[in-house]
Amino acid sequence: MTVLRVDCGAGRLTFGELAMDCTIGRGGACPAADKREGDGCTPLGVWPIRGVLLRPNKIEPTGLRLPWRWVRANDGWSDDIADPAYNRPVRLPRSFSAESLIRSDGAYDVIVVLGHNDAPPVPGQGSAIFFHLSEGRPTAGCVAVDRDDMLRLLPLLAPGDVVEIL
C-alpha cells in the first residue's frame, strides 16, 4: 500500500518523490464526522482508492493498474439523501437528485473514486468525494490536480493505495 498525501493547508499533494499543487473544497477541510452533503468541505482521513472512471476520447488508459471503466452519457452519482442509492453510481435520468459524470469543463475527464462514506453510505455525510482534474477553482469537496500532473500520477497508482487528506 502506498499513500497519496494531500496537505490541505499547503495545497500540496505528494506521492513518493512526486509533489504537485492541488485544490480542495470551497469550504476547506473538515473532520469526516462533520462532513455534510453540499457543505463544500473536503473530508479529512484516509480513503481507499476504489477505481477510475475515464471519459472516452479525452484520456487513454495506458499503463493503468487500477480498475477502470469508461464513463457513459447517462452515468451519474447520487447525491440525494432520500435515495436508496445515495453515494453510489446511478443511471440518469432518475427521480432522485444525482450529479452527471459528464461535465463540459473537463474536470471529470478523469475521476479517481475514493472510498469516503461508502461502506455503507450514511445519508447526508457526503457523496461523490473524488480525486479529479483541476479547473483552477475550488471543488465541491473533492481533491483536484492539473491534467499533466494527473497523467503522470495515474499509472503509478495501484490497487490497495490510499489517499490521506490532512
Automatic annotation (TrEMBL):
Pfam families for the chain: YkuD (PF03734)
SUPFAM superfamilies listed in its UniProt record: L,D-transpeptidase catalytic domain-like
Keywords from the UniProt entry: Cell shape, Cell wall biogenesis/degradation, Peptidoglycan synthesis, Transferase
Positions of the catalytic residues: 132 (proton donor/acceptor), 142 (nucleophile)
Signal sequence interval, chain numbering: none
InterPro entries found in the cross-reference section: LD_TPept_cat_dom, Transpep_catalytic_dom
Alphabetical list of PROSITE patterns matching this protein: LD_TPASE
Domain of life assignment: Bacteria
Coiled coil: none
L,D-TPase catalytic domain location: 1-166
Biochemical pathway: Cell wall biogenesis; peptidoglycan biosynthesis
Family from the record: Belongs to the YkuD family.
The name this protein goes by in its record: L,D-TPase catalytic domain-containing protein
